[in-house]
Amino acid sequence: MAQLAIHKILIANRGEIARRIMRTCRAMGISTVAVCSDADRDQPFVAEADEVVLLGGTRPSESYLRGEAIIEAAKLTGADAVHPGYGFLSENAEFARACREAGIVFIGPPNDAIAAMGSKIEAKRRMQKAEVPLLPTVEVAEQSADEVLRQVEKLGWPVLVKASAGGGGRGMRIVREPGQFAAQLETARQESQAAFGDGTLFVEPYVESGRHVEVQVFGDTHGNVVHLFERECSIQRRHQKVIEESPSPALNEPLRTAMTAAAVRAAREIGYVNAGTVEFLLTPEGKFYFLEVNTRLQVEHPVTECVTGFDLVRLQIQVAMGLPLPEEIHHAKLHGHAIEARLYAEDPAQDYRPAAGPLHRFRIPASEGVRVDSALDETAVVSPYYDAMLAKVIVHAPSRQEAARRLGRVLRQAQIHGLRTNRELLVRTLEHPEFLAGQTDTHFLERFDPRVLSAPLGDSAVERVHAAAATLAAQACRRREAPVLGLAPSGWRNNPSQFHQARYRGTESEILVEYRFQRSGLALRIDGEDQGQVGFGVLSPEQIRLEIGGVARTYNVHQVGDAFYVDSPLGSSELAEIPRFTVPEDEAAAGSLVAPLPGVVHELRVEQGTAVAAGDVLLVLDSMKMLHEIAAPAAGRVTELRVESGSHVDAGTVLAVIEETS
Amino acid sequence: MPRPILPSRFDPRSDQHQKNRDSVLAQLEELEKLLAAARAGGGEKSVARHHKRGKLLVRERIELLVDRDAPFLELSPVAAAGTEYEVGASTTSGIGVVSGVECYINGNDPTVRGGSVNPYTMRKSMRGFDICKQNRLPYITLTESGGADLPRQSEIFLPGGASFRNLTNLSAEGIPTISLVFGNSTAGGAYTPAMCDYTVFVKDRAKVFLGGPPLVKMATGEESSDEELGGAEMHSRTSGLSDYLAADEADAIRIGREIVANLNWKKFGPRPAAEVEEPRYDPEDLLALAPADLKVPVDMREIIARIVDGSRFHEFKPAYGTNLITGWASLYGYEIGILANQQGVLFSAEAQKAAQFIQLANRHGVPLLFVQNVTGYMVGKQYEQGGIIKHGAHMINAVSNSTVPHLTLQIGGSYGAGNYGMCGYAYRPRFVFIWPNSKTAVMGPAQLAGVLSIVRRAAAAATGKPFDEAQDAMLRQAVEEQIEKESLATFTSGQVFDDGIIDPRDSRTVLGIALSAALSAEVKGADKFGVFRM
User: Fold this and answer.
1) pTM for this structure?
2) Nearest CA in chain A to B511
3) For residues A244 and A228, what is the distance between their CA atoms, to the nearest angstrom?
């Protein structure tokens, strides 16, 4: 195949992966074009691209899924190639074909390879030919329900019902006994039909403590197919990967050889070109079975880059140019161990409910062997329209133990202010004895309660010390900004009658900090408890060096309005200061209904003056891809309606005011 | 060009310094007892009752009113010490920062005899008006008082009436007056809020009327209630005496802070330097520099070096009239001129040097700091003939007619006309603070008793009566003791003849706050003095 010149690549994606691809493009001297939705105009990936084409809209269907508009953008900017990243159109054979028909290089596998792997049943048939181990399968086609059940009985219980066109856990059902089978099959069929427009199902034996191990493969247009070893991605929540690593602690050399060889056979079978991933289910007994092929760059590709030293995006571009894979790749070796953690804006304790809104600070300390692939700058507003992943933090270390320890520490030290994230869950998983022992399987986050794993890293005692640090930082800030008498000692009194006070809302209860600078030093009381000899060094609005209980530590304090974010070696806390004065006018009018989360007003069901009964829906809010009904808490009359259909609202915005009728 | 740094030869281990330190620490302990008494207000029971009613103590009100972490300089905290009245004189006052504005704050202490006004309360209050007027400081009063202490009404009624005149005079000068009314302010007291620019009344608490229900019933037969006659709601909605109705005490304080924030306040004095050096020497040494024995002089340069910015001082006329040090420095970034008694006695040279220096400061528009440790003007034939009175008069003329701000710090003795020449209380310094070891009198107790004895002896000789040596010794001792007692810092401060006794280590802070407050007003040197007799 002739070599193609690629001078300019359009990245049909957003966030961290768009930035990641552009980084390699810049290193290769290739110009970049970003496309973006209205919601993403101010994102760093947009700023970093050489050129940008606005797709408009907010939801993916209005923006990043509009293949035609993206091809138009490529034409408009003269891009020779499109990199689809992951998600969105990356595994859309139609889009790949449309690009190629428009004379634009699609950086990915051939159209038919994408199409073949899109159907799980079709994929399994092809794999069977390549002698890739498969779980016995019952295809659910025209047979009678009794016939299906009879065939399934042979698999043994429990079984897993899956959608052929599936992904992300939809259309998937575990059935543990025959009595439930018919009903579960029907539910799965309906879900699959609704989600993918295809009700085709198949049934496999269900492996209880299986691991997810995948092999990175690469093919070029010169007939070479190689592998770059495996990744283990067993730590998952709701079928989404959370922690990935390479190599897998579960593979020994013979197993690795067998699995990687099977993956290469699979790729050859479908004439695979470019980067792909063959996913396997690994049983506790050391048997592995084909799951599916991902015909794109994986989110977790950095761990492979760390342990092999190859830039996978560079390889993708080179292969797309028609170049052969580099000679060294045939001698690829594993170096050390890499672990990636995905930081999501979500609350693991509340069924991983995604969080959106302003992120006041996002700072992950740089250190040796740490890579951060992030979508964000130091401050950001996380939009509710897309995936809630903020960044991937990857550590490369000589051993798995060290990699886990360092990644845990980096995450502990990260300053993430303003949004709930899964950071605590990541840290506790990485520090978990079972994880460290390599005892990972896809049910790890079910065996260990996510609510426990995601509890604040500092207990209430830490929170109290952090409240003291917040107080002293705020004090330093007030002194620095004092318009007069800024030189006078802080809080100086010639006849001191009381301590200075600050009150905070902590996780469990209110925290009272009292302090006074005296000739003998700093007197400090937390919740009425005298802290004895308290030493201090730096006292600045941003940093406090405090010796308390005989241990000196540095506390980083970040104040945003009444909120204080404190990070220290003890952990991280968010504290809200209770204002000294309550302003009566500021209190929301009784009966005010506020937006529980940020979003867009989808529909108004009442007008000003409408009489409502308790529970009547007043309006519907579209947020985080979900509709939320805002209902009247009591019977009354709508006296104010402060929003209209289409209004963007922040969490806490007053939507309507209801005057209760008694 | 930066001023030279004062060198220090201070030896903390010297006997004299150890003695000074021990002595002043003991005096500070005595002072702390008085301060504790002032803080205790009307005592535990009264405080508990006040709290139980959901009310804040006057100090709690002030703490809530002032900007967080900003300093508060309480003035005359031991007023009424040594009298039959409670220490503090049932009121707390001082300089505080409210919404970024330096204000004078005065609050009644309702736990002390209902916050009633005694003669010392009145003195403190009159001093407050003077401070506001001279320094152009907004006046905030936290009102809750039962009015005049009736048994002593004769001492209060006539002079005390000036309060209302002073309030409206301040207003006329463009100095804002704000009254936050927390409780009773009836009869004459009703004019306190009425004369203020702004009033805030606490709901269900403020009670402001000329006559209460019984008096009204007696006068006109009308039946009425407290709320109808003087409630916060009524005054806010009906009479208009209250500008703001506060939901509770904290709300009143919040509104008070907002009022100040909206005054569009600008200081008229110079702005401080952007960068300010701290003194190079430990203020702790000031304890050892506080003279326990007033006969032993202290090196004023050591004291100055522990007060002024960077310990930098440019001395004026260093070789002339060396008993008085004069020179330029800065404090908290503001330029000042300093006059300090290096040796207690003022001769003609010192007096003339002071008169010249004060005139220079007025030409330059620079505030003055007087550091007193003065025994008086020199007496004796040679000096009288040399014109010591005339030269002392030059100094007093200059001090009296100088219009730049004066601050006075007394670190030891202050006797005789030396007190006047060095800008003592009667010479209306903007602020005057004294160290605990200070002594103030027309002359030393021994001298005074000795003079009286000589007079008695002369009278006896003139009438040919025998002189009773034993009785004279007894009288001398009694007089000496009385004068000694009345010259002590706690006594003079109790009489409100200064703005407070301070810990020597706080000198820089106290003077810095006072100077900054004083510079709320414009600094303008005098363009006229009295005739200097030549």
Assistant:
1) 0.86
2) A488
3) 15
